[in-house]
Write a structure and sequence with these properties.
Number of strands: 12
Low-confidence stretches: none
CATH superfamily of the largest domain: Response regulator
CATH class of the largest domain: Alpha Beta
CATH topology of the largest domain: Rossmann fold
Largest sheet: 5 strands, parallel
Strand content: 15-25%
CATH architecture of the largest domain: 3-Layer(aba) Sandwich
Order of helices and strands: EHEHEHEHEHEEEEHEHHEE
Distance between the termini: 25 Å
């Protein structure tokens, strides 16, 4: 998972970078609003952590321009202000959540993971990869002309994989993204459901393959195995 942190206080950005990196995230840090905006518009991230009080361009303006450009990446706002009007302004500008400084890293991590489990703003109702098509509204899956019947959990797992095609995902990332914060890391439930999903997708023949990356996790590949 890739996270963009836009924060001008080096002690705070360093603290966030170290903690998220240790939790398995790939972290990019920018120290002012202008550079943060440019980075958000040209690179793909799973979450943006954005401070409001920034040099060059404040965080609310960055957020407005990000949203007006069609970027739907979940945004967690950081602010030293604890006034209701500032929080409302941030949410109205397109933020998904906010966190008031000072904060415990455990809370920031929990909120970041919660955003990853949320469908992005303006998310597509239909996700496709090759011949595979998942329709979120109809709760249906097709592989070419063949309808694939999935349980609710298999559907959620496939949706999560389709949102990260070609990306190697750890079992913990998949577990937290599909099962939530209460996912038990030592459980084999991810492997079990990957097996279920593989068997159902293999019925259609040349569909996307869920490949195992030894010692890491899984990746949804557009070609057949």
């Amino acid at each position: 998972m890739r996270v963009l942190v836009v924060e001008d206080e080096r002690s705070i950005s360093g603290f966030i970078r170290q903690g998220l990196s240790e939790a398995g995230f790939v972290v990019t840090v920018e120290g002012d609003g202008q550079r943060g905006l440019q980075r958000a518009l040209v690179a793909e991230f799973d979450v943006i952590i954005l401070d409001i009080m920034l040099p060059q361009m404040n965080g609310l303006e960055v957020l407005r321009r990000v949203r007006s450009s069609g970027v739907a990446t979940p945004v967690l706002l950081l602010t030293a202000r604890d006034e209701l009007d500032d929080k409302v302004a941030g949410l109205d500008a397109g933020a998904d959540d906010y966190l008031t400084k000072p904060f415990a890293f455990s809370e920031l991590l929990a909120r970041t993971r919660a955003l990853l489990r949320r469908p992005p703003l303006q998310s597509a109702d239909v996700l496709r990869l090759g011949e595979l098509e998942l329709d979120r509204r109809r709760r249906s899956v097709r592989l070419g002309s063949l309808a694939i019947r999935l349980s609710a959990r298999e559907f959620a797992l496939l949706e999560y994989l389709l949102r990260h095609p070609g990306q190697v995902l750890t079992r913990t990332q998949i577990g937290e993204g599909v099962w939530g914060l209460d996912f038990e890391n030592d459980s084999n439930v991810v492997d079990v459901y990957i097996g279920y999903l593989r068997r159902k997708l293999s019925i259609g023949g040349a569909g996307p393959a869920i490949k195992t990356v030894r010692g890491v996790g899984y990746v949804l590949d557009g070609g057949a195995e």
